[in-house]
Amino acid sequence: MPRPSPRALALTALQYGVALAALAWVLLQVDPGAVLARLGRLDPPVLAALVAVTLAGLVARFATWQAVVAPVHPVSLRTAASTDLVVNFVNQLLPSRLSGRVAAPFVLRGQTGMAYADAAAASGVHTGVYAVYYGLTAAVGLGFAVALADLSAGLALLLALSTGLYLVAGAVVLLAGTNLRLLDPLVAWLAGAVGRLPRVGDRAAERVRGLLSFTEASTESFRRVAADPGVWARYALGWTGALVLAPGLRVLLLFGALGVAFEPAALLPLYLVTAYSVTLLPLTPGGVGVTEATATAVFVALGVPGEVVVPVVVIDRTLGVYLPAIAGWYPSLGLDLSELSPGQ
């Protein structure tokens, strides 16, 4: 494996530096002692409700993988859970959510043993549908935030950019996945060019031509899954539970426990989706720090005191993203990386 270039290492170091700086800025907005004291006084029913909502959100997220994998390969909820946790773990290590999803087909194949073409198709549909639902929901939330909150021009522009990128990314992934056969002329040309190499040309050309069967199989699976209304409906149920209802209920519970009444409560989950949309931008690994800072700025503009927003956002991100990502480290150890190549 080639070593990363000095430029790539410097960029990665910069992204981690930005993440730490942003997270430090967020935490400096509050008095840690006072926050811990207030959180320590949370009633047991509130704590129990937070745990229940978080677990329900995780099950809903696992169900999104079941929705896209089941049409091409039998999959249990446990296997879907392992796949989601590992992919989430990888996402937190790489600068962008979509870049982390590049590993999803390998993870899915390692977890299920399914054909790589089917794994690539299911993973691609998962990414595309996720991005479309996220972009549409974030756009609605941004519209309400612009109309009802005192967002700065810079913050509104950042949220509009990240929301637009979700919509573009979803459209590109879905269109590309259903038209992989457009690459066939390029693959044929490459096979011809490689075939003229001395000694190894014939064998290398045969390997390249093997991509034609892969694109055909993957395109067929992708189209079958992406064109199924039932997949979109089942995915929507899981996605809404995991990305809208669970975070929204967690934040509402915490706001209420800390003495803040947010109105209208029905819009809070939409604001969260919008504020968290910056995870798609390759600013920091997993959006760490920048996401918390952006969410803090959004809710302060909506009238919530900063000393309440910061701990609530940090707790929500920890329960919904960081702890599941850490949990994904363990199942990732069970993957045999030597078998995670398309040719196997």
Which terms would index this structure?
344 residues; mainly alpha; 15 helices; globular; disordered C terminus
N to C succession of SSEs: HHHHHHHHHHHHHHH
Strand pairing plus helix content: what structural class? mainly alpha
Number of helices: 15
Q: Report Rg.
A: 22 Å
Number of domains: 1
Average of the residue pLDDT scores = 76
Extract low-pLDDT stretches. 207-214, 337-344
The protein's oligomeric status is: single chain
Termini, distance in Å? 19 Å
Q: Strand tally, please?
A: 0
Helix content: over 70%
Largest sheet: none
Condensed summary:
It contains 15 helices and no strands. With 344 residues, it is mainly α. Helix 1 (6-27) packs parallel to helix 13 (290-301), helix 3 packs antiparallel against helix 11 (229-257) and helix 7 (116-148) runs antiparallel to helix 8 (153-177).
Tell me what you see in this structure.
- The protein has 344 residues and is mainly α.
- The chain has one domain (37-183, 214-339).
- It has helices at residues 6-27, 32-40, 44-69, 77-91, 97-100, 104-112, 116-148, 153-177, 184-195, 201-226, 229-257, 268-275, 290-301, 306-327, 329-332.
- Helix 6 (104-112) crosses helix 7 and helix 13 (290-301) runs antiparallel to helix 14.
- It contains 15 helices and no strands.
- The protein is globular, with a radius of gyration of 22 Å.
- The model is unreliable at 207-214 and 337-344 (pLDDT under 50).
- 74% of the residues lie in helices and 0% in strands.
